[in-house]
Amino acid sequence: MTVVRALLFTIWFWLWSAVMNVAFLPGLLLPRQAVMRGQRIWAMGLNWGLRWLVGTRWSVLGRENLLPAPAILAVKHQSMWDTIIWHIEVDDPAIVMKRELLRVPVYGWYCRHTRQIPIDRGAGAAALKDMLRHARRARDDGRHLIIFPEGTRVLPGETRRYLPGVAALYRDLGLPVIPVALNSGSHWARKGFMKWPGEIVLEYMEPIPPDLERKDFMQRLEAAIEGGTRKLEAGG
Question: Which residues belong to any copy of the Phospholipid/glycerol acyltransferase domain (predicted)?
Answer without folding.
Answer: 71-185
